Amino acid sequence: MEEGVQKRGELIVVASAKGGVGKTCLSVNLATAFCKKNIRVSLVDGDFQFGDVSLSLDLKSSFTMKDILDEGESIDKPSILSYLNHHESGLKVLAGPDRPEYADLVTPETIENVLNTLLEEHHYVLVDCGVGFHENNLKMLDMADRVLLVTNLEMSTLKNTRLMLETFETLDIRHKVELVLNRSTMESVIKPNDVVGILNSEEPIYLPNDFQTASQSLNIGIPFVMNQAKTDLAKAYYKMAERLYSKREITMFNDKKKSGLFEKLLTKKDVENEEEKVEAAPKKSLLKPFGRRRST
Ligand SMILES: Nc1ncnc2c1ncn2[C@@H]1O[C@H](COP(=O)(O)OP(=O)(O)OP(=O)(O)O)[C@@H](O)[C@H]1O
Ligand SMILES: [Mg+2]
Predict the structure, then answer these.
(1) For the AAA domain, which residue ranges apply (predicted)?
(2) In degrees rounded to 5, what are phi and psi of residue 183?
């Protein structure tokens, strides 16, 4: 079928402003929970340097993103699909490259091609995204229908999450974001009720603290929604899956407008530079903190 009239699945990108807050745990368990609905679900390890989605599912991944990269830009849909690894839950997984140095080979164009192909074939495509505003991460965020932004009750995480939300506002993608407060029942001087005020945000999705279940699951490679379904943690995940599923919208490929977040960040910087010249007083650059500069 011609692109432009074809239904596409929903793309959920799991992101965070800080590492180690529970993105992989969430991606793997949410994707597996969706599989219980007998729909087609795929999961992409979008942390191309140190991704551990395969490990978390105990998948001996025969194929990885590197195989797709090796085929070059002319790679076709059957080849992309042939590099997915099959998990017993029904989940199809695109593993990250097995060496960190291959991450540099991944381009926004490859990401777009791979995600569009997966969206043609699956009801849900989830991405476990790396931290930060790397060009590739911006591509995934740009294409996403929904961004699950994971945070916790630590001040440094909340500070960075707030900055990330402000950047999303600038990039006009704030409306796609759902906040997830992971480990919301953990001991902390910051209380779950404080989070809305600190982040100047709406009410997040709350996930309870259960380190034993979460960590054991990641270590043995069995999602807790499969073998620990009676725990409060797994129940919260099923509830979250239900909530997201009920809000699912059928999208067509031509509904997706090209916005180019990376270019937006650059444009923002150009505008600010002009303003700086006029006002003399220097303003904070959006790009500087992310370490990318436009070549002139
Ligand atoms: N709800 C939870 N309760 C308690 N511990 C949790 C919970 N969710 C995740 N964890 C723990 O948090 C740690 C980090 O989880 P995970 O690896 O998923 O984070 P991450 O954001 O993917 O990290 P990275 O940025 O390194 O990829 C793990 O030890 C995991 O067991
Ligand atoms: Mg991770």
Answers:
(1) 10-175
(2) 55, 40
Q: Which atom of ligand 1 is nearest to the CA of 26?
A: 18
Residues of the chain with pLDDT under 70: 1-5, 254-259, 268-296
Give the residue carrying structure tokens 């220097």.
282
- Report pLDDT for 275: 64
The pLDDT of residue 273 is 67
Pocket test of ligand 1: the residue of 16, 25, 219 to mutate, having most ligand atoms within 8 Å of its CB, is 25
The rounded Å distance from CA 155 to ligand 1 centre is 17
159, 188 contact by CB (below 8 A)? no
> Which atom in ligand 1 lies closest to the alpha carbon of residue 28?
18
Cβ atoms 40, 121 nearer than 8 A = yes
CATH topology of domain 7-259: Rossmann fold (3.40.50)
Minimum CA distance residue for ligand 1 atom 30 = 215
Q: What is the model's pLDDT at position 283?
A: 39
Within the chain, what is the greatest distance between any pair of CA atoms?
A: 62
Helix (H) / strand (E) element for 237: namely helix 232-246
Tokens of 251: 């999208």
Domains of the chain, residue spans = 7-259
Query: Does residue 161 sit in helix, strand or coil?
Result: helix
Q: Which two tokens stand for residue 253?
A: 């490929």
